[in-house]
Predict the structure.
Amino acid sequence: MNSLNPNLTAVDAAEKQRVWEADRDHFMHPWTDFSTFKETGSMVFTGADGVSIQDADGNRYLDGIGGLWCVNIGYGRKEIAEAVAEQICAIPYFSTFGHHTTPPAAKLAAKLAELAPGDLNHVLYGCGGSVANDTAVRLIHFYFNQLGKPTKKQIISRIDGYHGSTYMAMSITGVKVDHIGFDIDEQLVHHISCPNPYRRDPGLSEEEFCRQKVQELEDKILEIGPDNVAAFFAEPIMGAGGVIVPPKGYHKATLEVCRKYDVLYVSDEVVTAFGRLGHMFASEDEFEIVPDIITCAKGLTSGYLPLGATIFSDRIYEVISKPQAEGAIFTHGFTYSGHPVSCAAALKNIEIIEREGICEHVKEVGAYFEARIRELGELDLVGDVRGRKFMICLENVANKATKELIDPAAKVGNRIADACQKRGLIVRPLAHMNILSPTLILTREDVDFVAETLRESILEVTAGLRAEGYLAR
C-alpha cells in the first residue's frame, strides 16, 4: 500500500471510547442500520494518507471505496490544505447573491465550462450532488415556464438510479429500498426500468434489450404526454444502484428520444466525473453524448470540502437570463453557493488531476484493475462483475446458471466486506453485492492486493455459506 505519512498513530483508548459514545448517542448517520447500531456503534477512523485509512487502534486499510466514490486524488494532499488555508486567510466567505463574487468562484466556473462538453458553459453551485440535482429540477421548470410551456414539469428517471437524498433528489432516485418509510413525490416523478444487461430476458440479445429500454422511455413520454415531460435524469453508469453499465448505444439513443420530444437530458455525473472512468466528464468522452445539463460533486474536490455544481447549456442560459418581468430576479441559490474556500479546493484538485495525468493513469491502471477484478467472475459465488475502470460491482448469486439470489438473511455482501476488512481492505456491501470505487492513484501492486484479498474473502464466505446451507454443496 502507498504510505505518505508514517507519523499516523493510534489514539488513546479512553479518547477512542469518548468518541465512540458521543457518536452513538448523538450523531445520526446517513443510512444507519438500527438493527445493530445501538449495540455496535461506529468504527472510528482517525487518519488517512495516500490510498489508505487508519482506525483509532492504529490498524490500516486500503480504502477500496474512495471515501464514498470521491477521494479521487487520494488522502493527505498538502497542496489542498495549503490552498484552503491561503483562501481562508484571504477571504473565507462572502455572499454571492446578486452581483458579488470571489476569484475562486469565478475561476472555477470558467474551468468547469472549459472542461464540460459542448456548450455547457454556465454553473450553479451548491454543497453536494443532491442539491445539484434539486437545482437542475428548479432550473428546468423555470426554463420551460419562461418558454411559455408551463405544463412541462414531469421528470423521468430509472429504477435503481440514484440521484440524492433531498426530497426531490430522492423522489427521482429509483432505488426502492431507499424509499421505505419515507414519502416521495409520486405525482411529479416517473420511473422506467433499469437497463441492466445481466438481468435481461434470456431470449434477448443485448442489442434487442437496448432497443427495448429506449422504446420504454419513448412510450413513457407518450403516455405522460410530450407537452408534460420536462426532463430525463440518467447516470452514465448507475452507481449506488449496483454499478449498472447500460448496453452500448443506450445513452445516444435515449438522448435522441429526448431531443425528439423537447425533453431536457440531465447527465448525473456526481460519481463518474473527474477521473473515475479516465475522463474529466464521461458523458461525451465515454458515451458520446452532450447532455443539456451535467450535475457533479464528489470528485470535484476529491471530498476534501463539500461542493456541487449544476452545469448547463447556452440554450438554457439564453432563455433564463432575460428579465422576465419588471422587478423579477432569478431567485435560486444558497448561502454557500460558490463558497470561496470550497472553490479553491476544487481548483487545486483539478490542477492536480491535470498535472499528474490522473485520467491517463486511470485509463492504464484502471483497465488493469478492471481486468483483475473480472477474474473473480470464475468463482462459484460471483454471478456478474461489471463496471469500468475504478468503478466495479460484484454481484453474488446462489446459482450462476439461473442467476438466483442468495437468501437475504445471509447478508452475503456484508460477510464479504467483513472478511475483506479483517485482511486490511475496505469494500462496500450493498445487499448481495460488493462495490469498489477506490482512490484513482492505486498502483498495480495495490490492485493486486485488492484482487487477491477479495478472492480469499469470497472463498472464505462461500465455504461458510455452504456449511450453513445457503449454498448447495
